[in-house]
UniProtKB/TrEMBL annotation, chains A, B:
The keyword Cell membrane does not apply. The lineage of its organism: Eukaryota, Viridiplantae, Streptophyta, Embryophyta, Tracheophyta. It comes from the Eukaryota. Residues 6-135 form the NTF2 domain. It comes from Senna tora. This is NTF2-related export protein. Pfam families: NTF2.
Length: 138, 138
C-alpha cells in the first residue's frame, strides 16, 4: 500500500474509533507517545486516552478535509497532517463548534488540525508517537 | 534553551525571513527536505525555495497564533506545529485571503497551518526535513 493510501486508511480508522469507541484508541498509542491537546502536553497511552475520553462531549463526528503524508526520517515512520471539521451532537455544542453558511448568515465554524507521527510496530502495524491537536477558530 | 522557546525562535526566524527575504530560506532546507504545499510535494532545498519564491504574491505578513513543539524521536529532532494568519499586500489579495469581522459582517479569513520537522545540524543549528503547509478556509 502506498504511503498516502496508508495514511488515509490510518486516519479513517482513528476517527471511526474516536467517534464510536474512544477508549479503543489506547491500542494506537504507547508509553513514549505524546499528545499536545490545545497546548496541553500529555505523555503515555493511558494518560492520553484518559484525556480523550474525558473531553466534555460524548457524541461527535469528524469529517476530514485534507490528509498530507511525508516520510519522517525515522525508519518507516510517517508524518500525517490532517485538517477537517468536528461536529458535536446537541444544539448547544453545535452552535459553539460548528458553522454553516445559511441564507447569507455566517456562524462560527472551527477547523480542526491534527498531526500524527506514526511509527511501525514489529507486528506490521503503526502506533502514534506524536499527536498534536488544535481547533482553529476563524 | 528549552525546546518550546527554541521552536518559537525558529518560527519567528522562518517567517521574518519569508516576509523579508524569501530566497534566504534556502539555508533552512537540505537536499532530503520535503515540502507539501497545499497537497503538492516538492523535494530538495532548491526546488522548495523555487516554489516559495514563485508564489503569486511578493509582499505578505505572517502572524502566528500558536506554536506547539514535541521531540520527534529522531535524535535531537523536533516537530513544530504552527497556526496563524497570512495577510497579503493589496486589496484584491486581502479580499481573497484575509477576513475581518467588521460591523457584524463576516468576510472570508483563512487560517494557515504549518508543520515543521527540525533536525539538528553538526554546526549546532537546525534544518527543516519535513514541511507541510495548508490554508484552511473557514
Amino acid at each position: 500500500m502506498d504511503p498516502d493510501a496508508l495514511a488515509k486508511a490510518f486516519v479513517e480508522h482513528y476517527y471511526t474509533t474516536f467517534d464510536g469507541n474512544r477508549a479503543g484508541l489506547a491500542n494506537l498509542y504507547q508509553e513514549g507517545s505524546m499528545l499536545t491537546f490545545e497546548g496541553q502536553k500529555i505523555q503515555g497511552s493511558q494518560n492520553i486516552v484518559a484525556k480523550l475520553t474525558s473531553l466534555p462531549f460524548q457524541q461527535c463526528q469528524h469529517s476530514i478535509t485534507t490528509v498530507d503524508c511525508q516520510p519522517s526520517g525515522v525508519n518507516g515512520g510517517m508524518l500525517v497532517f490532517v485538517s477537517g471539521n468536528l461536529q458535536l451532537a446537541g444544539e448547544q455544542h453545535a452552535l459553539k463548534f460548528s458553522q454553516v453558511r445559511d441564507h447569507g448568515i455566517f456562524k462560527i465554524k472551527p477547523i480542526k488540525t491534527k498531526m500524527f507521527h506514526l511509527i511501525p510496530t514489529p507486528q506490521g502495524s503503526y502506533y502514534v508517537l506524536n499527536d498534536v491537536f488544535r481547533l482553529n477558530y476563524a
